[in-house]
Design brief:
Elements: E1 6-12, E2 30-31, E3 34-35, H1 36-47, E4 53-57, H2 62-72, E5 79-83, H3 88-97, E6 107-113, H4 121-134, E7 136-142, E8 147-150, E9 156-159, E10 165-174, H5 175-181, H6 193-199, E11 206-208, H7 219-222
Parallel strand pairs: 1-4, 1-6, 4-5, 7-11
Antiparallel strand pairs: 2-3, 6-10, 7-10, 8-9
């Protein structure tokens, strides 16, 4: 059954510059004249300039982002800044806590990495459409390279790459599922929201992403 949904987005931007070998957090690095994070937000604004967006940042980075926004006069009215936590799990949970609980009855939430600036409005739209019908929509692409699985003892075995998907964001879910899943105890192995929902026994539906929807993490990614 199709649900009547209120859409929300949580954009998580808590990275540092360590793997980028930069003193500046990677989400603030310039890309084609704008901070990477601004490009990412603008893709969501291109999908909807009224959908409430929660931008989750470390408290230490708030002055940097405020300065960049002031310099560029970038003040979208539907973007609210939320202070992140010590881990990605905690940061997403903080973003979720800022969404009114009354929205859970018919709401959807998309979680996206702040350093994936090439996500398309079409992928965002598909994630909401699929989650509206299926409860979840996790963006992914097929593996191109051969894949081997390594165990704790260093032994490795081949894996059929046709069965492997590389997970991206956005990852979009029913808000009621999402809030219930994030009420579980924090687990250190959670690297994305799909893992949290799966741990809480909710089904995960995969949707097609794009090889262009890269996560900018290293200098080669930025090039």
């Amino acid at each position: 059954m199709t649900r009547t949904d209120q859409f929300y987005a949580i954009i998580v931007a808590g990275g540092s510059g360590s793997r980028m070998k930069s003193d500046i957090a990677k989400q603030f690095l310039p890309l084609r004249g704008k901070p990477i994070l601004q490009h990412t937000i603008e893709q969501f604004l291109a999908y909807s300039d009224t959908m409430p967006i929660r931008l989750v940042l470390p408290e230490r980075d708030l002055p940097i982002w405020e300065t960049l926004c002031a310099e560029r006069r970038f003040r979208p009215a539907n973007v609210t800044t939320v202070i992140g936590g010590a881990s990605r799990f905690q940061s997403v949970r903080n973003g979720l806590a800022s969404i009114p609980i009354e929205a859970d009855k018919a709401g959807l939430v998309a979680v996206h990495d702040g350093v994936r600036p090439y996500v398309s409005p079409a992928i965002i739209a598909e994630s909401f459409a699929t989650a509206s019908h299926r409860g979840s929509a996790v963006t992914c692409v097929p593996a191109k390279d051969s894949v081997r699985l390594v165990d704790a003892d260093g032994r490795n075995t081949a894996v059929d790459r046709a069965r492997v998907r590389l997970i991206q964001t956005p990852q979009t879910f029913r808000l009621d599922w999402f809030r219930q899943a994030f009420a579980v105890a924090e687990q250190p192995h959670f690297t994305d929201c799909a893992s949290v929902l799966e741990f809480a026994n909710y089904p995960i539906t995969l949707i097609e992403g794009s090889y262009e929807n890269i996560k900018i993490t290293t200098p080669d990614d930025l090039k």
